[in-house]
Each structure stands twice: as structure tokens, then as C-alpha cells.
Amino acid sequence: MEFAKRVGKDAVCVNFSYRPCNVFREADDGTRHYIDGRIKSSNDLKKMEEPPDLKVQLDRLERYLEVAEGTGVGVVANFTSIFDSTLLSIGFQDFMYMLYDNMKLVEHIMDIILEVQVRAMEAVCEKYKDDIAWVLYNDDIATGSGLMINRDMFKGLVISRMKKLLAPAKKAGKIVTTHTDGDLKEVISLLLLLGVRGIHPVEPTYNDIYALKKKWYGKIAFFGNIDVVLLTTGTKEEIKVEVKKHLDGLKEGGGYIIGSSTSIFKGIPPKNYLAMVNAAIEHGKYIKEG
User: Fold this and answer.
1) Same domain, yes or no: 173 and 241
2) Do 196 and 268 sit in the same domain of this protein?
């Protein structure tokens, strides 16, 4: 928590993750990378790992809340979701084929994952609704060309299930936000059906965040959009200029939370990350007139 305060984070996440049957390979540098899923037929369902121990997850959340008390740093309950967890359990190409060849199996896997995550969501929102800052769910549903699957198919497959997942959070009065990469033009209207109030990280390669805010102002907030390429290779002055541009164009009226366009990874120099934070502190203040 002390680290979060020192580097300018307003909140930290505690993860409630269930992504079964992922296959990883270790690279030469020691990092692990997803390469495929294990479920290719109904016979492979027995390969699904047991869900994480919910008590262990809740104990971890409680420890974070205890440490965060009085610091001004919020604690966010962060859940993996159902679409990309199902996709990853099967593998990208096989998932796309299975949508047409064996939709029942796709739905069955999705429902297994949904049951686990609903149980976690209910437990968090019943016991800690007054303590957590908000609810975040991770579900990469888009690429640079838009939704991964046909919009009507997505609505039929995902929306009702997602409403079930998010129902405990909505009942508890918690703000719900989401993470998805990709082009958001087709995505935002679907998120509004779910009552989602914020989206991360609004990748600048695929999205004009200024146009998105103008179109969706008052309906959904935007997180991120500071290009990680700039954070990796840019100078501190270039980063400061970009942060100021974002804040000048997006801060008025609310609906923007500054941050990076994807995860802060090892290749980003700490001085550049801090340049973003310091520029946000310098230029992010509102001036009250009158």
C-alpha cells in the first residue's frame, strides 16, 4: 500500500480469478506466455482445474482492506469474466470453430466459469460492499477491428450471463467498470446494457478518446489512453506534454481517469512512469471559479 501511495495510484486491485485449462510456454527470458487452451471436446472437461479457494481469496481482500484503511488508497475487487476465460480455455481458433460446430459446449464451459465467479461476486458484495471502492471485471471481447464475434451472437451468448454475474454488484450499489482491449466503437453500447460505468484502457491505436468522450459523455467514463510506447521510449518532457494534452481535453466535466494504455510492464523506465504521475498531479487539478 505504501508503494501505491508513493507512485501515485488511487486504488489497488485484489483479484478473483478463474481461468481454467490455459497452456503456457516459458520463453528464454523466463517469462510465461499463453499459447493454447486444453478443451477441444466434451471429453476434456475433466481437465478443468478446481476453482480457487474462495476463503483464501476473501482473506486476501480483507488483508488489503485492513492495510488500506486511512491511506486514501481504494481497494477494487477485480474479477475475471466469462467470454475470454472460455475462449482461453479452448484456444482462439478452436473457439471460433466451436461457436458454429459445438455451441452447446461453449455455453457449458461458460456456465461452469460463470457459476464460480457469481459465487465469488456474491460473497464480496454481501460482506464487503461498504469497504471496496468499486467492482472491476476483466473480459477482452474486442480486437483492433472490433468485437471478436458477431454482435448478435455476442448478445445472445454473453449479455444475459453477464447480467447474472454483475447482479450482486448492482444490488449492492457498487459502480462496475471493465477492462477490454481493442476498438471500442461496437463495445460501448453493449456495456451500457450491463450498467457498466467505466472502461479501461482505451488503446490509442484503435480509439479516439476525445471523440468517444464527446459521444458518450455522462454515460460512461474512460480510463487510461496514455500510450505505453511513449512511456517506454519517450522523454519525460514528451510524456508531460501528452499528459497535459489529455487532461486539457478530457478532465472538464469528469469522466476521465488518467493511466496507461495497457499494463505497466518491465520495459517501461520507472522515471517515465513517474513523469506521467507527476504531470497528472501538476495538470489534473480543477480550478474553481467565483
Assistant:
1) no
2) no
